[in-house]
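Notes from the 1:1 (GR / supervisor)

We went over the backlog. Supervisor wanted to see one worked example end to end before approving the batch request, so GR pasted a single chain during the call. The sequence is below; no edits were made to it. Supervisor asked that the structure be written out right there so they could see what the output format looks like.
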Amino acid sequence: MFGLSEIAILLVVVIVLLGIKKLPELTRSAGKAARILKSEAKAAKDEGEPQAVYQVTRVQPTPAAPPQPGPAAAPHPGTDTTGR
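Structure output shown during the call:
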């Protein structure tokens, strides 16, 4: 592959050929392309995973009603109520 010195020489040649005035435009378009690529990669990743949607609801506790007196329960047939 290329070493650091070869990449530096290549950059100098590109700067000379394109001119210093075109360099900011070139770097701006490279940045836009990188952002687009990043957003597309994120969209492709999100497309494969289902998104979970959670809805938080608050439940207000209802005050407990005092026990209502009712008819006395009859003992179950066959039970001994004499205490023996």
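Supervisor's comment: The helical segments are 4-18, 23-48.
Batch request approved.
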